[in-house]
Amino acid sequence: MATPTPARRPLMAGNWKMNLNHREANLLIQKLAASLNEKQLTDVETVVLPPYTDLRTVQTLVDGDKLLIGYGAQDLSPHKGGAYTGEISAALLTALGCTYVVVGHSERRTYHHEDDALVNAKAKAALASELTPIVCVGEGLDIREQDGQVAYVRGQLDGSLAGLTAEQVAKLVVAYEPVWAIGTGKTATPENAQEVCGAIRQRLAEVHGQETADQVRVLYGGSVKAANIAAIMAQPDVDGALVGGASLDAEEFAQICRFPEHIAR
Ligand SMILES: O=C(CO)COP(=O)(O)O
């Protein structure tokens, strides 16, 4: 008899992007902590990804009040340290208690010309420091209009995860964020999300084996809100969400993290 697949714990990660200073971060974390009880924070892993300048504040709150809220950064340098003006290394992030880091967000790929090779180097730098990379992939509107999303995302995934062992892949998170759905209010349908998240898991299984693929959490991102999270989470290969705009409102993000209650209703 096949061993049952261990359940993947849902993960809701709030990408604040370039929003909220450290005082505003303080307020949002306090409100979030007040809106979610211990069971909710145990059932669904809740993570915030603030700007670098907020990380010390978030660390102080999380440590001081023993909050069950994880945190991390939105990017990191592929280099270990040294003369790289303006960059932040994995070691600087782990020193602040970060456990996650986003790599290859479409805004970095577009505005900073980051390619799969650089995303791959960043994922490796994160893993070498015990940080969990959230590796972002996703097609633009032109590719979606030609129905090329699956092939495109498979290519991005192969490039971004090149040279990683199955053991390393099992530890990371992949986020599927169709570029046309980011900040536009156009959410992919739950079926659109499942098609590509399922294809991501299938590709991971082809390269690293089914057992590894079954451990990887695959998130959907793009105009996720409290109103659409339950339908997205009902898809078998979607294990959570990478939330932008809606994560800046503590109550909205808390409602997203409480999605099992929306499903039960
Ligand atoms: O880019 C995103 C998260 O990383 C999605 O942003 P929105 O939720 O604002 O569409």
Named once each, the bound ligands are:
1,3-dihydroxyacetonephosphate
Regions with pLDDT < 50 over 5+ consecutive residues?
none
What is the residue-mean pLDDT, rounded to a whole number?
95
**CATH level 3 topology:** TIM Barrel
Could you please describe the fold and organization of this structure?
This protein has 265 residues and is an alpha/beta fold. The protein has one domain: TIM Barrel, CATH 3.20.20. Helices cover 47% and strands 14% of the residues. The protein is built from 14 helices and 8 strands. The chain has an 8-stranded parallel β-barrel, surrounded by 6 helices. Strand 7, helix 12 and strand 8 form a beta-alpha-beta unit. Helix 1 crosses helix 13. The protein is globular. The termini are far apart. The relative contact order is 0.15. 1,3-dihydroxyacetonephosphate binds next to strand 8. It is an enzyme of class 5 (isomerase). Pfam families: TIM. Homodimer. Pathway: Carbohydrate degradation; glycolysis; D-glyceraldehyde 3-phosphate from glycerone phosphate: step 1/1; Carbohydrate biosynthesis; gluconeogenesis. Its main location: cytoplasm.
